[in-house]
Amino acid sequence: MLGVFWGSSMGTPRLQVIAKNPELARIGQKIQALVGEDLQEVEATIAAHLRSPYSPVAEMGAYLAESRGKRLRPILVLLTAKMIGYEGRRHILYAAILEFIHTATLIHDDIVDQALLRRGRASLTSRWGPEQAVLMGDRVFINAMHLAVQQGWSDLLPVISDTTLSLIEGELIQSHRKWDLTLRRDDNLEILKKKTAHLFATCCATPAYLQGSPPEVRESLQAFGLNLGIAFQLVDDCLDFLSDDATLGKPAGNDLKEGKITLPLLLLLEKGTPEDKAFLEAVVAARRFDPETLAEVSRRVQEAGMLDEALRTAVSYAEAARGYLDPFPPSPYRDVLLRMPDYIVRRSF
Q1: pLDDT per residue over 218-271, tens digit each?
Q2: The CATH number of the domain where 261 resides is what?
Q3: pTM for the whole structure
Q4: Cα Rg for the chain, rounded, in angstroms?
């Protein structure tokens, strides 16, 4: 499996593509040891609330339950809950709720992008068609809100609804700015925050809301999640130029084909040679996204050093995330959360 590796220090990155990273395996093993049982409960909760007596809802629900992905967002809920000493069990349900919100957006993304693959499998829209898929995406969204409302009014309900609105707004803005080469870096950052990072922030802060922690605890956890989420999405955007279909679970070069102007492309437009800029502008104007053209775009981005610069930006956010865990006392859970930025910038999918 290919991966993004940064040598001995995240602070002085140099891009390499490597075959294996045992450090990532160790992080995964540690997570399993610390919250594996809770994660199984989250999986059971997700599966239970995807069931239905009606077909094809039941079939699509079972298919989604099997397409597990990394479950990074529930893992963040579980680890932060343990780190702050939360002793209840409601975080299990909220971990499932937040994963449902994420899943629903992926379903809708695939419909908009006409994506054939998701996590290496046929997307819902390619298997059941866009009409069935959009309704299933709506069902998953509403199911998340229904479960949250069932828990009764709390400070968390407006946080979750605001996060969902932010996520949808981010997708709308990105859709509106398809193939827009006038997009600026701060525009890109705002999209990243809305479509990805705000959900990470809510995942990390949810246990603090459940526990009734002081505002400064919630704010530290939100800031940790926000910076981690920005780093995650930046790496995701970079992987689109590196990974193959089997590793990423979707075709490489897919972002540009779908109209997403990500940071590596913005940097090429800003700092590349006139020839690089003219080439990219011509590709976008002609909507020429055959494999050979996409490979040439990727080559230019990498040779100009823009992929390295984008990944350095991701590392800076990942490093910033660590600092927001300083107020919390040492524990095995904090140790793993401190290593999560390593996972974010070294992952291959």
Answers
A1: 999 999 999 999 999 999 999 999 866 555 555 668 899 999 999 999 999 999
A2: 1.10.600.10
A3: 0.92
A4: 20
